[in-house]
Amino acid sequence: MQLYASQVVLPHESAIPARYFSAKSEPELKGDDEKAMLKNIFLDVKKKFETAMGILRKEKITIAPEDPAAVAQYAKVMKTVREKTDLWTESQTIKHAIESETKDIPDARGYLLKLQDMRIKQGLKDELGAEAMMMDALEKIEKELKKPLMRNDKKNMASLMAEFDKINQKLGVRREDLPKYEEQLELKIAKAQLEELKKEAEEAMDTQKKREEFKDEEVPDVKSLDIRNFI
């Protein structure tokens, strides 16, 4: 998250794609126009859902989070779903969330504190201690300025960004490796989702096993289940 943060710490609303614009930037709609808009939204969601289901009915998914090959295949399938339905990747979601939550924060300190709050709410850990390093870098610059650093102060914000780059370098994080980090993130998410699927499948089979009519049936291995048969 810190790497995305260092990319969007400067205010740059014009860089946000049109589809990211919030509802408040759209004209107020009433009557038939509002009904037409809601209908179009419903049809769009319906189309994306049907597209996703079509892909999931064709692709084999093995519920085996302990198997790297199964995780990679699941991640590949979900990537196809996102691409065909024009949904965001987790990386895009994180970046957009940071942009949306911080766009009205004028100072760098408020930005970093908001970022910390977002991380905590998402249950993420700052295992590398990057936040403390970023705050120390800000302290250094504000000490020289003798005042709070504002995000529209391009000169001194550039200095802060340079300090962030040094932190990323120290931690072994490089901007040019961002695609690799995004791929690793998607694999972690895929594994977590497969673990959740496995848990739910085992709980469902355990519940069924307790029913009188199924007590003598053998419980299948979760890995042998074909999700396509349940869609």
From TrEMBL:
<feature type="region of interest" description="Disordered">
    <location>
        <begin position="200"/>
        <end position="219"/>
    </location>
</feature>
<feature type="compositionally biased region" description="Basic and acidic residues">
    <location>
        <begin position="200"/>
        <end position="214"/>
    </location>
</feature>
<dbReference type="Pfam" id="PF15704">
    <property type="entry name" value="Mt_ATP_synt"/>
</dbReference>
<dbReference type="GO" id="GO:0009555">
    <property type="term" value="P:pollen development"/>
</dbReference>
<protein>
    <recommendedName>
        <fullName>ATP synthase 24 kDa subunit, mitochondrial</fullName>
    </recommendedName>
</protein>
<dbReference type="InterPro" id="IPR031432">
    <property type="entry name" value="MGP1"/>
</dbReference>
